[in-house]
Design goal:
alpha+beta, OB fold (Dihydrolipoamide Acetyltransferase, E2P), 19% strand
């Protein structure tokens, strides 16, 4: 079992990064590969080593909390690694765990690949099995009250700051936001918004 890898990002695509570890390139599928692209120095990726009859795959995460939640999610009937990865791309561990504890089906069904029956199954199977994964005191409402367009509150502002650290200018990012804002919901994570923005930046 490969629990983590430490190395340099040699290449990345929309679904994975290639991590160079002492001259060996590991393809690691991630919720948001663009997160790791900003690191110029050595980076640690926490992994899940997934073996099936026709493939051996590595799934990677920025934190232990993501790694733990991924492993819990794939224990749920009907949730495969790709769906679990999509859940983590659409919400932070804190928000997903909080939604499960609060039985917030509205929030869960907004995540990629999750319908109402699957959301109910996740709550039933995991509500009492998430000890050790911090919720960060997150409270999620069915009617989200956060103002996405308020610079002091918005997920976009955090994403924009992170993107500026990658070398993008305010003008470039403001232009992207005009195209992006209709496709972003208040409950999306910073990583999810960054991933959408980077796709547009790369196309542009």
């Amino acid at each position: 079992m490969i629990d983590y890898l430490r190395g340099h990002v040699a290449h990345f695509e929309s679904e994975y990064v290639v991590l160079d570890v002492h001259g060996i390139g590991y393809r690691v599928f991630c919720p948001n590969p663009y997160y790791f692209a900003k690191f110029k120095e050595e980076v640690t990726i926490y992994t899940h080593h997934h073996v099936r009859e026709d493939a051996i795959l590595l799934f990677g995460f920025a934190t232990r909390e993501e790694q733990k939640l991924f492993r819990k999610l794939i224990e749920v009937s009907g949730i495969g690694p790709r769906v679990a990865l999509g859940i983590l791309a659409g919400g932070t561990p804190d928000s997903v765990v909080a939604a499960i504890y609060q039985e917030n089906i509205t929030f869960l069904t907004r995540l990629p690949g999750i319908g109402k029956k699957t959301a109910q199954r996740i709550i039933l199977d995991l509500k009492d099995k998430l000890d050790g994964i911090s919720t960060g005191a997150v409270v999620i409402h069915s009617e989200l009250e956060i103002d996405l367009f308020n610079p002091d509150q918005s997920t976009w502002q955090e994403a924009k700051d992170a993107l500026k650290s990658l070398g993008y200018t305010d003008a470039e990012l403001d232009k992207v936001w005009q195209s992006l804002k209709g496709d972003v919901t208040p409950d999306e994570s910073v990583d999810a918004v960054m991933k959408k923005a980077l796709k547009l930046l790369y196309v542009g």
